[in-house]
């Protein structure tokens, strides 16, 4: 094992810190294409440690330098090309033999490119072999390697690497500490993150709002909301005045433990401070109210956003819609969906299916809702090639109740064509509705469709059909149907005969089928 295991450099922060705290430098990777856009902060490292081993050059990595950025971009592309045609051992051999890497700065470029390309094992292997190239890791090397350990989720090794670097006299910048703090917090190791934060103070680093925000987020993540709230209040009136991200982190923690009203108080405090609340802050509140079973208050947050000139986004509306459906506020959910359509925002298809089913069930008492369900159902079919079976079944049954038999038959045929096996009760509803409407032949065809799809018709369907055939005097057809039922092992209660009961009596005997 090498004597020092390096650390991560804060140019990579946007790759892992899913928070707006670190937006000075943006690194974007997309299948071999990387662009590094530096912010206003000048990034540099200096190596203060001397070694008897030959040190060819020690050039600070300055990411405001165009040549540096393009070289790393080229290396990332090369590494990803190698990874598609070589295994890791072959890649390592190729990179080791490359004469281009002669200085520690060259290797820092390579190590950084390997981390970006997620070739972490190769990065660690090359680091351990630096002495064979007569090179000594500098401060930048250590920072990059801390990042490598964080990416591998080896937080103990990352912390050990930082301790080793400090013992050797290196001084990684505050961004490196922040990366490590954030990685620890994301994995729920808040106590370790506190140790790193305290080490920053002992080493003479000025604490940053970014580092404290990481701790606030970590405390909220593990449920230590009161501690996070106390820390937030302690930041007020100091040089580390809390920003919008500080408040958002604590609000998120409060909402997750059912204290959304306190989170709303923090929002009011943010507004009083003159800080402009962002969409993430409002979305946090909406989600909190939904979890607490208060979806209407979550919907009211949408109006609050407009008051503060914060435009609700796709997440805002879908979160509200999910909460309203979860707590069965169907009509309010329909209203929110219509607003989304007006704003040309697409709702989640699964939630559209849920809304269709809820509207169908409500349409039994309020028939006008069937039209809304039908329109939404048609939009679903435009969005996806295959609608889920449950939504189709409920829609078919609702159409039968609404006496829209042609649509019901079309949807039932669609289900069979898609390879679904509709429940027998779905066929029963269609057959019952068609018989009630005097469409016995269509009802018989539906029975045949059920048999063709691999299902066995129920006794109720045979009873209904035989009853109607008897009423129409089609005794021969009734006998054929009765014989087909017996062949399938189904014994109908009704038999073909001249004396037959009326439809109303059959309904009274059999009862009604419900969705």
Automatic annotation (TrEMBL):
Q: Spans of PPR repeats, please give.
A: 138-172, 173-207, 243-277, 278-312, 388-422
In alphabetical order, the GO MF annotations are:
mRNA binding
An example Pfam family from this entry, by short name, is PPR_1
Keyword set, alphabetical order = Repeat
Similarity annotation: Belongs to the PPR family. P subfamily.
Entry protein name: Pentatricopeptide repeat-containing protein
Q: Which organism is it from?
A: Sphenostylis stenocarpa
């Amino acid at each position: 094992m090498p004597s020092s295991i390096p650390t991560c450099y804060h140019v990579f922060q946007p790759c892992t810190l899913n928070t707006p705290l670190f937006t000075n430098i943006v690194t974007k990777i997309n299948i071999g294409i990387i662009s590094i856009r530096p912010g206003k902060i000048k990034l540099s490292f200096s190596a203060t440690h001397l070694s008897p081993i030959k040190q060819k050059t020690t050039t600070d990595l300055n990411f405001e330098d165009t040549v540096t950025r393009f070289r790393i971009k080229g290396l990332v592309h090369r590494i990803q090309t190698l990874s598609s045609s070589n295994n890791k051992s072959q890649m390592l051999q190729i990179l080791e033999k490359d004469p281009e890497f002669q200085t520690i700065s060259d290797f820092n470029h390579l190590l950084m490119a390997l981390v970006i390309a997620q070739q972490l094992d190769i990065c660690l292997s090359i680091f351990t072999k630096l002495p064979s190239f007569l090179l000594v890791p500098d401060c930048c090397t250590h920072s990059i390697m801390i990042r490598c350990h964080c990416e591998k989720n080896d937080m103990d090794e990352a912390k050990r690497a930082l301790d080793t670097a400090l013992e050797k006299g290196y001084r990684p910048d505050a961004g490196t500490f922040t990366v490590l703090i954030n990685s620890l917090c994301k994995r729920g190791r808040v106590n370790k993150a506190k140790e790193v934060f305290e080490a920053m103070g002992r080493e003479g680093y000025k604490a940053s709002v970014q580092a404290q925000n990481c701790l606030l987020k970590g405390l909220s993540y593990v449920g230590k909301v009161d501690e996070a709230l106390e820390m937030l209040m302690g930041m007020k009136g100091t040089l580390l005045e809390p920003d919008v991200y500080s408040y958002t982190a604590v609000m998120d923690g409060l909402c997750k433990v059912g204290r959304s009203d306190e989170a709303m108080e923090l929002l009011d405090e943010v507004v009083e401070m003159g800080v402009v609340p962002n969409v993430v802050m409002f979305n946090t509140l909406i989600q909190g109210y939904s979890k607490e079973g208060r979806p209407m208050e979550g919907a009211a947050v949408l109006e609050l956003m407009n008051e503060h000139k914060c435009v609700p986004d796709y997440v805002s509306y879908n979160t509200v819609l999910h909460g309203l459906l979860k707590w069965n506020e169907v009509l309010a959910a329909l209203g929110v969906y219509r607003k989304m359509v007006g704003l040309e925002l697409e709702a989640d298809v699964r939630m559209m299916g849920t809304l269709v089913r809820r509207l169908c069930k409500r349409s039994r008492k309020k028939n006008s809702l069937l039209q809304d369900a039908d329109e939404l159902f048609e939009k679903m079919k435009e969005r996806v090639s295959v609608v889920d079976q449950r939504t189709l079944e409920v829609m078919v049954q609702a159409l039968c109740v609404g006496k829209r038999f042609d649509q019901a038959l079309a949807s039932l045929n669609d289900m069979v064509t898609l390879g679904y096996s509709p429940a027998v009760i779905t066929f029963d509803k269609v057959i019952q509705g068609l018989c009630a409407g005097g469409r016995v032949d269509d009802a018989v065809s539906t029975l045949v469709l059920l048999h063709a799809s691999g299902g066995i018709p129920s006794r109720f369907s045979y009873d209904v059909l035989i009853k109607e055939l008897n009423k129409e005097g089609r005794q021969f057809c009734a006998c054929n149907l009765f014989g087909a039922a017996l062949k399938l092992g189904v014994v109908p209660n009704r038999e073909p005969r001249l004396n037959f009961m009326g439809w109303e009596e059959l309904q009274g005997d059999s009862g009604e089928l419900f969705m």
